[in-house]
Amino acid sequence: MTTHSIAALEAFANALYQAVGMDEDKAACVARLQVLTDAMGRRTHGLAMTPLYLADIKKGGLKVSGQPQVGSDNGTSAVWDGDYLPGLWLVNEAIATLIPRAEKAGIAAIAIRRSHHIGCLAALAKQAADRGFVALIANSDPAGQRVAPYGGTEALFTPNPFAVGYPGADHPVLVDTCASITTTSMTRQKYAAGEQFEHPWLLDAEGRPTRDPAVLEHSTPRGSLQLVGGGEYGHKGFGLALMIEALSQGLSGHGRKDAPSRWGGNTFVQVIDPRMFAGAGADAFAEQMDHFSERCRENRPIDPARPVRVPGDQAARGIEQARRDGIGYDAATWQALTRWAGELSVAMPAH
Amino acid sequence: MTTHSIAALEAFANALYQAVGMDEDKAACVARLQVLTDAMGRRTHGLAMTPLYLADIKKGGLKVSGQPQVGSDNGTSAVWDGDYLPGLWLVNEAIATLIPRAEKAGIAAIAIRRSHHIGCLAALAKQAADRGFVALIANSDPAGQRVAPYGGTEALFTPNPFAVGYPGADHPVLVDTCASITTTSMTRQKYAAGEQFEHPWLLDAEGRPTRDPAVLEHSTPRGSLQLVGGGEYGHKGFGLALMIEALSQGLSGHGRKDAPSRWGGNTFVQVIDPRMFAGAGADAFAEQMDHFSERCRENRPIDPARPVRVPGDQAARGIEQARRDGIGYDAATWQALTRWAGELSVAMPAH
């Protein structure tokens, strides 16, 4: 597999976005965060998303220029209307806005309604954690129906991703999870590859567990993604889904009641300054959490070949490797990018 | 089973706590919230906890008098040192402190270190949700080791409960969950009853799934509670556990590094005023979330005999029933309470 340097890939994606009219700051930000996402190993949400974004820009879904409208703002909490601007850029701007507010008040939050897709939440949480802050990000798409409430059969909400990032000794801890066992992207990928899931992580239209992604991608009536906990204790996943709906749709004042049909997302972003908590001083948070991470990593593993990892460890190794060796892409992603480069007269990455 | 009225049970528990020297305000608060917990149906955390609290007061673990020390406070965020005062009272005080702050800033939070056990998180979240606020509560006990990190064999942290409450049309939505599939209380109850769990929700000391509560309550070396997601996707439960550790121990600046051996808890309490978000006005949050709850309840169920419930629905029905019919207790709980009433010369509930 041919690999390309991070810098070359960023310049390439940036040029693609600018070629369809995206503002310079937004194009640079989206390109940087998508390449970072690939370096972190979350390949469904890196440059594999670029052709989908470019197609949605062409049909007028993803907006390429403008600013969010501020709905309300008291200096600590705010609501932004994202006007379907790039979600990665909007959340990155929200984090930049929230950091000085958290330095003052300890916590600060922005609920964003009508954003476009926000991509990889862990890459965004890292933007705050790298600077010494705790970030909580909760996201849902009011236009998507892929998960049923616990005990139900009809897909009603999205996987509802949720991320937490906080600083660590060598690299941040980055938790990126969601209320369903598997995700929309994984389901599409499995279906496109003609594969079944290893475990029955979906439900058919009657609520029977199945490994077949076609229940969501092809069948009528449609099935749904199983909640975390599945049939045994899916009330736990359902609880998480409700929390994320309340933060991202309730607090932004926009959601499923408005029945939007456009690809988008609502996002709750909160930044916490641990220096304003942790009474004993600036290092108390780090002392506790670094101690905890080390106790996790040295925990005797079930399988000696698979030591315990803390979330964020693998991403940090991926970034290190990408910086050294560059990043390679699968044939399908690279072909789609090559087609767009041809159509938009953008040069492929040089190195 | 004999039942007693809510008022009589509250007066009884209040008298027990005051008989061992607890301040009047604390005794009344703990009694009220424990009886509420029973009414909500969370029977492991209601008056079944009273004998454990009384025993811990007698041996000097649970403090009965005093005030939390304020470690830092900027008007929006604060750290309290709970000095092992009753956790239900401390968190209830924190919520009362946070509500006017949230009305001003939209969000406000207190991290409490060195609290005693905080009881049922849903009953606490309800104290904010009943008044129109969103509450997030995360709790861990740095003295407890019952759950291993994902892929590990050695119990390192607690189930780490987490609750979210928000207002709803008829009653609040109350999510009360944790990072492990089952809980410490359920494990103790199963072990005491000589029962196995229905599913393999624990791991033995080698990390093999088991239904046997003895791996935690009796065996050496000890086993652990399985994370939400178990062997298949326990990284999801582990991620939640890390979030809760960071909020409750990292932000309070006290935790496993201090290796306390005393029964206690660290708690992060956040209150959000949805009226300060939800740009479109005071009702935008309620409109979105009530719509969502209704769509959940009318979702076609897998089993027609078991309609979809929203978390909080069952608690609301339990409270209604308890107000009408009173609350009855199992023999073991009632015997333990009767013994304490005798020892402390407190009259049993009259009606």
Structure description:
The structure is a homodimer of 351-residue chains. By secondary structure, chain A is α+β, with helices and mostly antiparallel strands. Helix content of chain A is 40%, strand content 16%. The radius of gyration of chain A is 20 Å and the shape is globular. The interface between A and B is large, with 89 and 89 residues.
Largest interface, with counts of residues having CB < 8 Å to the other chain, equals: A-B, 89 and 89 residues
Based on Cα principal axes, name the global outline of chain A: globular
Oligomer: homodimer
Rg over alpha carbons of chain A: 20 Å
Mean pLDDT of chain A: 96
Protein structure class of chain A:
alpha+beta
Please give the structural blueprint:
The structure is a homodimer of 351-residue chains.
Chain A: E1 3-4, H1 6-19, H2 24-39, H3 50-58, E2 69-73, E3 77-81, H4 87-105, E4 107-115, H5 121-129, E5 134-140, E6 161-166, E7 173-178, H6 184-192, E8 202-203, E9 209-210, H7 214-217, E10 224-225, H8 230-233, H9 235-250, E11 265-272, H10 284-297, H11 313-325, E12 327-328, H12 331-343
Parallel strand pairs in A: 3-4
Antiparallel strand pairs in A: 1-12, 2-3, 4-11, 5-6, 5-11, 6-7, 8-9, 8-10
Helix pairs in contact in A: 1-2
